[in-house]
Amino acid sequence: MRKNKYGATALLAGVLLLSLNACSGNGAEEIADVEQQAGASRVTLIEATINVSETNTLQMQLEATLGENAVKVQKLVLTGEMRAVDMYYLQGSLNDLQELDMSAVIIKASTYRKPSGNSINISDNELIGALLSGKTSLRSIQFPSSIQKIGSSVCEECTALTTVTFSANLTNQEIPGRMFYGCTHLTTVDLTGSNVQKIDYAAFYGCSSLTDYVQFASITNLGGDAFKCCSGFTSVDLSNVTNIDARAFEECTSLESVTFSNQLTSIGFYAFRKTALTSVDIPASVTNLSSSAFCDNTALTTVHFAANTIPSSTFQGCTQLATVTLTDNVTTIGSSAFYGCIALTDYTPFSSVTTIENSAFAGCGFSSLDLSNVQKIGYGAFSNTPLTTLTIPSSVTAVGGRFISGCNQLTGLFWESTASVPDVYLPNCFLYLRTQNGEAPAFGPNWKNVVIDGVAESIEFNFLQQNADTPPFRCPQAFTAKKISFTRDFNNWQNTVIGASSGWYTITLPFTPTSITHPEKGELAPFGSGVESAKPFWLRQLTAEGFADVTTIEPNVSYILSLPYNTEMYADEYNIRGKVTFSAENVQIPVTPDALPASDGPTFQLCPTYQYVPMRGNVYALNTNYWVEDYNYGSVFVRSVQEVYPFEAYAVVPSSAAPAVLSLDFRSANSRAAGVRNTTGIPQIGDK
Question: What is the largest CA-CA distance in the chain?
Answer without folding.
Answer: 127
